[in-house]
Amino acid sequence: MTKKWVYLFTEVDQAEAYVGGSWDGVRGLMGGKGANLGEMTRIGVPVPPGFTVTTEACNAYLAAGDKFPEGMWDQMMAALKEVEKASGKKFGDPANPLLVSCRSGAKFSMPGMMDTVLNIGLNDETAKGMIQLTKNERFVNDSYRRLVMMFGSVVLGIPDEAFEEVLDSYKAAKGAKLDTDLTADDLKEMIARFKAVVKNHKGFDFPQDPFEQMRLATEAVFHSWNGKRAIDYRRKAGIRDDLGTAVSIVTMVFGNMGWDSGTGVAFTRDPSTGEKKMFGEYLLNAQGEDVVAGIRNTEKIANMAKDLPEAYNQFMDITRKLELHYRNMQDVEFTIERGRLWMLQTRDGKRTAAAEVKIAVDMVDEDLITKETAVSRVTPEQVDALLHPQFDAKTMDEAEKKGQLFAKGVNASPGAASGQVYFDADTAERMAKEHKQAVIMVRPFTKPDDVHGMLAAKGIVTSEGGATSHAAVVARQFGVPCVVGASMITIDLEKRVMTANGALIKEGEWISLDGATGKVFVGELKTSVPNLEEQKELLTLLTWADEIARLQVWANADYPKDARRARAFGAKGIGLCRTEHMFFETERLPTVQRMILAKTHEVRQEALNELLPFQRSDFAGLFNAMDGYPVIIRLIDPPLHEFMPDEEKLFEEVVEMRVRGETKGLAEKENLLTAIRGMHESNPMMGLRGVRLSIYMPEIVEMQVRAIFEAACDETLKGIVVKPEVMIPLTGTVKELEWIQPRLVRIAKQVLEEKGVKELSYKFGTMIEIPRAAVTAGEIAKVAEFFSFGTNDLTQMTFGYSRDDAERNFLIKYVEEGILEKNPFQTLDRGGVGRLMQMAVTEGRAVRPALEVGICGEHGGDPNSIEFCHLVGNNYVSCSPFRVPVARLAAAHAALKHGKGLTQDL
Ligand code: ADP
Ligand code: MG
Ligand code: MG
Which one of 10, 161, 516, 558 is separated from 185 by 20 to 30 angstroms, measured CA to CA? Predict the structure, then answer.
């Protein structure tokens, strides 16, 4: 028996059985459009009779070198007989002709596929017959001239303009504005002229044989699967090339039969806000694409209630039924023929992030979907988009039309920003802080020295670098909209101007950037600022996400204001507080430097004693903000030279003073220079830092631990619930912990006693960021009470890449060449770094079952990495406060996909 290549709309049961019962399979076989036409037929919605030729037939046709597979055409003819029976008309019969449309439709809707051809089956004879039948010559001529035009351009590949020119010049000569102004005779003339266009371009006549029309149209649909636009799109969207497209042949219904007929498109809810209100347009006396094409001004769908009340009521009933059936907002197409309603398409409607969230939450309230479904529908990217200031698509379109598009780069960090351009960090910061300007910092690329300017800026643009450049990483971490690698921009740092796309922008002039699309505009575009507290539906959805998730979401926060934001965004703890930031503050830095340069213990202790109250109040603020939740404080981590003045700059100053013969202060500078040079390390990131520094110079961390516990006790005595966790960075061997941790614990206990605090739950633990620590986690867990994966360093050291160098030099190439699937600093490398984590969790919990495990690297905010943390059995992920809502959703998605699984909760 030959394969079944063709399914009537009434045969969707059979298609379902063939693919093993899955709806996804039916969509794969019949295409989205065909599957839903069948489904609507099955649930009793009025759909014109028709059938679908499968994607398998398309693939077989293309594989055989453009030959219909055996039996396919016969099956189409047999199906056509059924359609004739159902419609009471006959294809090609002048006495009562059946007309059909030929429509493409792949599993996923995609651009580049063949446009629909309407009115197939019309020729000189059937047209005559139809005129007799309908007594409506104008309508028939209109349909016929549309067929010749559509068939000519879509199937035969004649440029549209060839037909449009003919139509326009004719209309102009007749003084007709709209197509509807043309009379039956005018349209008859059009048919003749369009036929001439076909003959001129192709050398043969417009095919009069209806079967030939159907065959050519079907082949054209198959071919469109391999059109350039379709292939390009599939590459970009990651759609497989072997899916193929289906062809649906649908009995024509006519919206252009007079003023009791019409056609329209609608969304069952507002696709931009999600509001539960029919949203759409229609046109009376029109066919197919007229509504979308904007040839005539359309009417709001609500007006249909008075134009065609019966059809309108039926339409409202049917769309309600469709929503109930698909349990999603639908995007529908319909036609009304002489008062009778026909549905021609339905699919899940595309919508904005805001609408996605509102619809999901509303549908739970309406008992249409479960909380789990609601949570799974919204993507982490959508949540992210909702929390960044944004330009709406319309604003950007209009700006582009006005020629304001300045450049396009990599969309590094989402959100929209407008501001005045400054070309260096110091000026950017000054303008923002002192002059209260909205600032956009523009640089060829950024370096760690530029961070103060970047943080003061509303947005960042660079002309070099990719999605993982310093600018991109920092921008994402701090939620600053950012476009990088906009290589068409030429920046002249001397003249303080930049040029691109024929425009010149001087320092201080306004630009706008959209971090979600990578576009940069000249001038100020209007933004709207979303606010989580006001986004009731999003808050609700995230609460459901928390109920579903096993992983908790904590935040990386160094300051109380970050902690408060994190908490407002739903963080259940602080996973990383970097204490060194506190050392950098201007009034503290001289003391820090004095402490570092101290030659004796006494001098050092004195400086530390001065720092202690600062640290204590920093910690008190954090504990206060996180009342009831754990706060992990990491002891000093970076190499000390980072706190010292820049060696080269200092050297320049010294040389200049010598040359000029200045002596005042020279000796101090020379001494400082000697000291800094003495601290030089050839590989500081692998040098004296982290726990090594603490062992080398324990006074610093001893002061820090004292400050932590004094603050903890003070807050506890005020009635705040404090849960401090002290984190020791960069452990490589358990011996390091055995050396330092007991000293620190002793200080903690001593402070508790001094302050008379009896009950305080605290922990001492370590970061796992050196491969050796992961490998020996079983030993380390005997001492450490918690692990936190520092996956930035762990990734660097596991790969042996220096991150900054890698991202600047070879990483992009590696990803392009497929040597690395993704940038491992953005998405956790499961096969290597991930295996180390897995090992560490398993062996750590073997000796300490209640071991608390988290992650505080940048990966903690990345949905794919969060999923992995769920699988490994982490208790929490910790990320930047801005990412917390995104991470909460991602944590829920992981639980939905894999079950709560694995370990005990905290
Ligand atoms: P697209 O994928 O571009 O939306 P469609 O196949 O949905 O293409 O068809 C284009 C237009 O033609 C739509 O407005 C659709 O409703 C209309 N149309 C398609 N088939 C028929 C038909 N059999 N009768 C009337 N209108 C039709
Ligand atoms: Mg359509
Ligand atoms: Mg580290």
Answer: 161
Quote the pLDDT of residue 794: 97
Among the bound ligands, name the one nearest to the CA of residue 105: 1
Q: What is the phi/psi pair of residue 626, to 5°?
A: -105, 20
| Pocket perturbation via mutation, ligand 1, pick of 52, 99, 101 by most ligand atoms within 8 A of CB | 101
Please give the distance, rounded to the nearest whole angstrom, from the Cα atom of residue 502 to the centre of ligand 1.
Answer: 42
603's tokens: 């001098």
Burial degree of 831 (CB within 10 A; 0-12, 13-18, 19+): exposed
Residue nearest to atom 24 of ligand 1 (CA): 252
Ligand 2 being an ion, which residues bring their Cβ within 5 A of it?
333, 345
**Which atom belonging to ligand 1 lies closest to the Cα atom of 103?**
6
- Whole-angstrom CA distances from 894 to 108, 238, 823, 827, 845 are 25, 22, 21, 15, 22
Question: What residues have CB less than 8 Å from 877, skipping those under 6 apart?
Answer: 551, 552, 553, 554, 575, 854, 855, 860, 861, 865, 866, 869, 887, 891
Q: Report the pLDDT value the prediction gives residue 353, as an integer from 0 to 100.
A: 84
- Tokens 């190439």 appear where? 813
The one catalytic residue in 856, 859, 869, 893 is 856
**Confidence class for position 292, pLDDT limits 50, 70, 90:** low
Do strands 519-522 and 405-408 pair parallel, antiparallel, or not at all (unpaired)? antiparallel
Q: What is the pLDDT of residues 244-262, one digit of tens each?
A: 999 999 999 999 888 999 9
Q: How far is the CA of 681 from the centre of ligand 3 (A)?
A: 18
Find the 394 Cα to ligand 1 centroid distance in Å: 26
Ligand nearest to the CA of 117: 1
Amino acid at residue number 76: M
Three-class secondary structure of residue 351 per DSSP: coil
Q: How far out from the chain centre does Cα 631 lie?
A: 30
Q: How far is CA 616 from the centre of its chain?
A: 40
Say what the pTM is: 0.82
Q: In this predicted structure, what is the pLDDT of residue 905? A: 39
- Is the Cα torsion angle 763, 764, 769, 771 positive or negative in sign? negative
pLDDT at 56 over 90: yes
Of the ligands numbered here, which is closest to the C-alpha atom of 788? 3
User: Terminus-to-terminus CA distance in the chain, angstroms?
Assistant: 61
Which residues sit opposite 512 in a β-bridge? 418, 521
Q: From the CA of 195, how far away is ligand 1's center (Å)?
A: 23
Helix axis angle for 72-87 and 55-63, nearest 10°, is 150
Contacting residues for 776 by C-beta, under 8 A, at least 6 apart: 733, 734
Please list every protein residue whose CB sits less than 6 Å from any atom of ligand 1: 48, 101, 103, 116, 118, 250-253, 288-289, 333, 335, 344-345
Average pLDDT over residues 392-397: 87
DSSP-assigned letter for residue 889? H
Ligand 3 centroid from CA 730, angstroms: 6
Residue of 9, 100, 289 to mutate, ligand 1, most atoms within 8 A of C-beta: 289
CA distances from 112 to 105, 245, 364 (A): 11, 11, 36
Phi, psi torsion values for 614, nearest 5 degrees: -60, -50
Indicate if 856 belongs to the active site: yes
Q: Among 80, 102, 103, which residue has the most ligand 1 atoms within 8 Å of its CB, making it the best to mutate? A: 103
What are the residues whose beta carbons fall under 8 Å from the beta carbon of 746, sequence distance 6 or more?
Answer: none
Tokens describing residue 865: 């990495």
